[in-house]
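Aim 2 progress. For Transporter, the working sequence is reproduced below.
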Amino acid sequence: MSILLGLLTGVAFGFVLQRGRVCFNSAFRDLRMMKDNFMFKAGLLAIAVQIIAFLAMSQLGLIHLNPKPLNLIGSIVGGYIFGLGMVLAGGCASGTTYRISEGNTTAWLAGLVYGIFAWATQSGFLSPLMKAISQFNITVAPNSALYLGEQTGPTLATMLNINPWIAGLVVAALLFAYLFGTKTTPRDTATWGWIKTGLLVVPVAMFGFWSSTISGRPYGLGITGGWINILKAIQTNELLNWEGAEVLGIMIGAGITAVIFKEFKLRVPKNGKTFLYVVAGGVLMGFGAVFAGGCNIGHFLTGIPQLAISSIVAGIFFILGNWTMVRILYGKS
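Predicted structure tokens for this construct:
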């Protein structure tokens, strides 16, 4: 059942990613290079609506909020390194994964290297680094029955000792004020508008959190763990779990969508040096995602909507790392 639920989540997510061209690397890079906030706003809209959606689902007992422990070393260092890597790889965790199914050969290489180094960081030759920083994990006693367990990762609500609904509604209101109170960069070439893209991410994230919870993984959308699981399944015959099935589903969903809309095309870069950048990016992304406790999807589309401090910090350093590499490669100040 968990494999089926993960596949269903992934196929739906792959459709939205492919049609909406959802990639956080592009969102951050475009904001810095061209002052283009189109995709950045789509992501923030998804977060704002998910804040309310996750609270409502928790209130109804469909899920429990389960923010990850705060590890400042991991979130800052790992987040920054992941941000550097996504620029070199030409896509974030989600962008790389869905572009694999469009025939993008650099995405094939980036995804493979990303998965290998995530696995190596989690349980391979880089795992001593994870053990070294694990002693700095911070958890707190939850201040609401909406949270899972007797200890939880700190959130804005637990830090301020206020009801999660109050914190959530205030943050969501601030995001809505920015989203609809500021000018949005037009993008005539986009298949979907930023509002449609952001809103369509939400039901996928809601279904993902619910289906992942009943499958014994009470967290929601993520990609890094799925890549690790797929590689383990290939190498050791380990069974697919929910997240592995989700990542496989993303590739299936994006591939079917690309074929239907005639957007599948084998793409090979003209400059062979691009493959070197992609390998370096995959290495940094794989290490950074595990060190930070999650990739851009796990933090931006699951952790930040729970107002997790770990995800907010990691998210900030994803952006800073991205902007640093944009400066190095493209000379943008």
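The chain has a mean pLDDT of 96. This observation will guide construct design in the next reporting period.
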